[in-house]
Amino acid sequence: MITAVMPTYARADIAFERGEGAYLFGNDGRRYLDFGSGIAVTALGHCHPHLVKALTDQAQKVWHTSNLYRIPAGEKLAERLVKNSFADTVFFTNSGAEANECAIKTTRKYHHDTGHPERYRIITTGGAFHGRTLATIAAGRQEKHLKGFDPIVDGFDQVAFGNLNELRAAITKETAGILVEPIQGEGGIRPATLDYLRQLRKVADEFGVLLIFDEVQCGMGRTGKLFAHEWAGIAPDVMALAKGLGSGFPLGACLATEKAAVGMTAGTHGSTFGGNPLAMAVANAVLDVMLADGFLPRVERTGKLLWDKLGAVVKKHPKVFAELRGAALMLGLKCVVPAGDMVDKLRANGLLTVSAGDNVVRVLPPLIVDEAQVNDGVAIIDRVASAWFN
Q1: Domains of the chain with bracketed CATH
Q2: 67 closest CA partner among 59, 75, 57, 56
Q3: What whole-number distance in Å separates Cα of residue 124 and Cα of residue 126?
Q4: Which pTM does this prediction carry?
Q5: Residue 72, preceding bond cis, omega within 30 degrees?
Q6: CB of 21 within 8 A of CB of 34?
């Protein structure tokens, strides 16, 4: 008999009653150190007082009006994102998948409105994950996500992640854009090299296609800069954001240059809930924290500490871990043992993590994690690895 909640998740048998900072408190009476952050979402931890105040203050005013009317807090948020990014304009969504859908539509519409309607195909990379809509599973091209949902939405061509020669060879007169995650999340915390990102910019310019970055998981401070592509010193034409942008409140955004968004005029795209007053209040509060002096450098320093300590654990337990991947507070432990079993054992020992493709355990603590919590989390990983074969 089917459950009332559609059984599309294999959920762990635990629920959480409350959270505070880097901790969650379960209905089993235990406290858990949260190094999963709701899959890189609760960037500022649980119940951050500035976010709670922003949400509760707004909740007493107005929740929803729709985009038939101006939403001043959304205008403010868009202006702040534009000021702190490559972009000239922003469309607000409710999720990362919707942000990627908007990015895909923006790219196609650009070519249509600039005289090249034949250019509609988008090149993606192996191991990618761009969401769970019919279009975004087609973009990701992973069989486990596509199975049972035929026919596959047309318009996407895939090449190996990091292979520029293969990418160049795949570009045709129908190619509209290139869609890449600067660090693949679901694919197993696989960072693109900075040179690869720079070369993507050059290739896009050479062939007259748009460069789209999916920073749904790696954006919003997780790498020690507001956006991961900043480390390469280049910028995309279009970018998808979500997850940490709302730090737990459902929110996504599609950012674009004025050139790329030339076709996105009234009536071309929409969202009933996108950019609602509650989401805008929370996201402005998130930016208050993330853009404060010293916040992102602190994330970078804490990430270096976590990298060094996890690196030592990987070196100590070669029969358990194969390598450490990632950047700052978006790290992955490539396992020799089953990653799913590792996640279960870590949870049993009070540490929450997230599995990913390529037999990887994702380590994604909130950006406000401190040195003592890093030490505690690494100690749990070391303890579980030490006891693995006993």
Answers
A1: 16-47+295-386 (3.90.1150.10), 50-290 (3.40.640.10)
A2: 75
A3: 7
A4: 0.97
A5: no
A6: no
